[in-house]
Amino acid sequence: MLNKKTLFVILTLPLVYIIYSFLNDDVVDITDFLYEITGNTAIFMLFATTLASVVKKVKFRKMLGLFTFFYAFLHFLVFAFLDFQFDIEEILKETTDKPFIYLGSISLIMLTILAITSFKSLFKRFSKIHKLIYVVIFLTFTHSIMSEKTISLEDLPFILFFIILVSLKIRQYKKITR
Ligand code: HEM
User: Fold this and answer.
1) Measured in angstroms, how far is the CA atom of residue 157 from the centroid of ligand 1?
2) Model pTM?
3) Over the chain, what HEC string results?
């Protein structure tokens, strides 16, 4: 059975893969490689976090959420350091010029708030804002599709999963308010 230690090891695997690829000189375009792996890992873990919440596997939810934030933040560092050498002026220009970048930025700000308030003492007071996770899913998914400029077959399972998640949540909500 899955326990927290095993889950921790599983969640570090993308990072291990990144380090392994560098050590083996397998990477042709570092920036592209890191954008792709950190972005897709973050989005995948975001879905896993929401699933853990919906199927009431609450003990895994916090770890999944914090790893989502970790990979999303790495993704942002790729943008800020590798792509724009931390040139604040250029970063702000790119962010305001390209809608998909500001959608990503809004998602990261929301993910940061969710990560900070996921710790016990704060979670009790701020648990309601964790519903924002559905907004984050929608924004990041739109961000990812807009960055690729097309919807590919690989995106369909995520779209389906999002629809199922939202319908499950609506059903749960209706049961509570009935
Ligand atoms: C400040 C926040 C963010 C910035 C500046 C940003 C920037 C970018 C950029 C520039 C790309 C295009 C990369 C390319 O040229 O191929 C991209 C793609 C992507 N981003 Fe973000 N992003 C941000 C937040 C996020 C977040 C929070 C997530 C997920 C939780 C995410 C997931 C993705 C995904 C999945 C892709 C497509 C990767 C691929 O398959 O090529 N991004 N992002």
Assistant:
1) 19
2) 0.92
3) CCCHHHHHHHHHHHHHHHHHHHHCCCCCCHHHHHHHHHHHHHHHHHHHHHHHHHCCCHHHHHHHHHHHHHHHHHHHHHHHHHHCCCCHHHHHHHHHHCHHHHHHHHHHHHHHHHHHCCCHHHHHHHHHHHHHHHHHHHHHHHHHHHHHCCCCHHHHHHHHHHHHHHHHHHHHHHHHHC
Distance 59 CA to ligand 1 centre (A): 28
Return d(Cα 94, Cα 100) in angstroms, integer: 10
Q: Which domain holds residue 61?
A: 4-177
Nearest Cα to Cα of residue 22 among 9, 8, 11, 33: 33
Taking residues 106-119, report their average pLDDT.
96
Compute the distance between CA of residue 130 and CA of residue 107 in angstroms, rounded to an integer.
Answer: 13
Contacts of 163 (CB under 8 A, 6+ apart): none
Q: Is the pLDDT reported for residue 1 higher than 80?
A: no
Mean pLDDT, range 96-104, rounded to an integer:
95
Higher pLDDT, 148 or 113: 113
Measured in Å, residue 38 CA sits from the centre of ligand 1 at 8
How many domains does the chain fold into? 1
